[in-house]
Amino acid sequence: MVTARFHHIMQTAQQDDLDVGDVAITEHDVAELDAALVEAGRERWTILVRDRNGRCVGRTEVTFEPWEPATALQQNTGIDQEHRGLGLAKWCKAAMLQRVRLERPRVERVLTANTFSNAPMLAINDALGFEVISTLTEWQAEAAAVRRLLTGR
After folding, report:
1. What predicted TM-score, i.e. pTM, was given to this entire model?
2. Contacts of 69 (CB under 8 A, 6+ apart)
3. Architecture of the domain delimited by 2-151
4. How many Å apart are CA 64 and CA 5, to the nearest integer?
5. Are 127 and 28 in contact, with CB atoms under 8 Å apart?
6. Which residues of 12-50 are buried (b: 16+ CB within 10 A; e: fewer)?
7. Distance from the CA of 138 to the CA of which of 67, 105, 118, 132 falls in 20 to 30 A?
8. What confidence score (pLDDT) does residue 152 get?
């Protein structure tokens, strides 16, 4: 339930002007994703943020690839909208980075990504010492329009 809730929280993240829609993730989907992760030899660490009642209000996660022991991949960090602005995302991301430093001394770099429109996460990444090393431009078009242009119809 917690993992599916986190995916719901991530639906509120900035997506620039992309028309991506909501992705519905069920507990079954999460179990399949986790099984595939383990089967591939990958490892994921997660830090949960809970409110006073124990309800998950956010989390951060990193993954490790067995073929790249010097790199940690900082994955999603998200906090429920009702709990934003309290420093929780920065706290849990910093706690994760500290854990990586202590428990994975071979890690030399941590890679992460986010949209340029997500000013709060950019500020967190900047405060934690991340630097932009590359950018990615994604293009989006309706499939029918692309077909028409390719076929001339």
Report:
1. 0.77
2. 106, 107
3. 3-Layer(aba) Sandwich (3.40)
4. 23
5. no
6. eeeeeeeeeeeeebeeeebeeeeeeeeeeeeeebbbbbe
7. 67
8. 83
